Amino acid sequence: MDKSILDELRDASRTKQTRLNAETWGRPEPDEYGKKGHYVEWCEERGLIPYPGKVEYLEQFLIWVYEQGYSIASLKHAKWAVDTYHKRMDLEPPGADPRIEIILAGIIRTKVHNGEGTINQKDALTIDHIRKMKFEDTKTGNRDKALLSIGFAGGF
User: In terms of residue numbers, what domain contains 34?
Assistant: First the structure.
């Protein structure tokens, strides 16, 4: 499969590790060691055609990834890699379907509930936080404090 100039530019813009991670999950062709991506191998083991993949395939694959004990980040990365390879082949990515977001949210909720992961949600900003902030005693500092206070009060 020949790469277009656009694909080469996209690849050059990514870090080496990002490219390797995408290939680990979604690579359709064998690499120099004869390995394909996890998704392709998973599909082939079940007699499914990976590209173009169906939404049902990606749902089942994500459940399999969950059952293998991978982290939340790996689950999201697997979905991203499969979608990326679909886009590179000008195919509709199965991860765009709302069913995938629902299954992914359920898996994440289950992992968090079981203590296998966390969701990095920060505490909400309160007016007390703004009052404790140190602003410069200049026109710029006063402006910053006023903008932050107005933005907070207005819910912006």
Answer: 5-113
Q: Check whether residue 108 and residue 63 sit in a common domain.
A: yes
Query: CA 99, CA 128: separation in Å to the nearest integer?
Result: 40
Distance (Å, whole) CA 138 – CA 153: 22
Q: What is the tally of structural domains in the chain?
A: 2
| Digit-coded pLDDT (tens) for 5-53 | 666 666 655 555 555 555 566 665 554 444 567 888 888 899 998 888 8
> pTM to 2 decimals?
0.58
Residues 113-135, buried b or exposed e (16+ Cβ, 10 A)? eeeebeeeeeeeeeeeeeeeeee
Rounded (10°) CA dihedral 62, 64, 68, 69: 40
Here the tokens at position 127 are: 């007016």
Q: Which is it for the CA torsion 136, 140, 146, 152, positive or negative?
A: negative
